[in-house]
Amino acid sequence: MSSSPAVGDRIVHKAFPPITRHRLALYCGASGDHNPIHVDIDFAKAAGFPDVFAHGMLVMGYLGQALTDAVAPARIRSFSTRFAAITQLGATLTCEGTVTELIEQGGEKRAKLALTTTDQNGEIKLAGEAIIAL
Amino acid sequence: MVDQSAVGRSFTPVTARVEPGRLRFFLDTLGETNPVYRDEAAAQAAGFTAAPVPPTYLFCLEMMDATVPFEFLTALGIDLARVLHGEQRFDYHAPVVLGDTLTFHPRVTSVTDKKGGAMTLIVVDTSVTNQNGVHVADVSRTIVVRNARPS
To answer: Is A43 on the interface with B (CB under 8 A)?
Structure first.
């Protein structure tokens, strides 16, 4: 960011393509998270789910991508999220981040961002926060 | 069911190298096209010595190079099919770039029962150091275990 943001500014906004089974299979390999619940429908059903569902960390990966589209990676001090709901197959995710507070911490000026990932129905999947250096 | 005796338990440290092919696979999977992650000149212009890793990639590196996958679940007697990811946190202290070799030290820091024992939240905190002994990050994961109903 070239200029200082103000509280209330929405500086992160990015939409992603629908979650497919193929994407989950690729993420299984790319992330090293081989939990079958995300790629093997038989395993998912035996565990009590109607189908496979997205890795929380795939969704957080999208949120991280939206974040570093807006904020240089070197400026990110922390990045956290709560996984509020399971992300289903076919979900079309939108990631957003709004400045909630300007703070001074660790000898530098920083901003706190509230981050969300929502699906096409507006359901919040991830609710998170990032601290960035200004 | 996991109880307070699990708090303080640590697991086998994991050593992982940030390799270009594996990192590219991750970037391609996420449709990540930001040049800072792919182009050395762009990374250097952004102040890095080589391409940095994306913000969540530390989580992947630890899983990819663990000699025992999901060791903490096995060690605590938790069935993988009963686990959901509850929360995830990264605190970044120093850059992590292509070519780095990282060591992850996972440790259980809290165990909390919820909903009258129907769920247990387990926090595993992992300190990450690089090949020069620099403490580059702290990673914290909270898993939710859906406990079996007593029969």
So the answer is: yes
Q: Is A56 on the interface with B (CB under 8 A)?
A: yes
CA distances from B150 to B13, B81, B116, B147 (A): 34, 17, 12, 9
**pLDDT tens-place string over residues B82-122:** 999 999 999 999 999 999 999 999 999 999 999 888 999 99
CATH 3.10.129.10 fits B4-146, yes or no: yes
Chain A contacts of B69, Cβ < 8 Å?
A: 34
Q: Which positions in chain A touch B86 (Cβ < 8 Å)?
A: 82-83
Range of the domain at A124: 10-133
ipTM for the complex? 0.95
In a domain, A2, yes or no: no
Cα first-last separation, chain A: 8
Question: What's the distance, Cα to Cα, between the start and end of chain B in Å?
Answer: 14
- Contact residues, chain B, for A17 at CB < 8 Å: 31
Residue A7 above 60 pLDDT?
Answer: yes
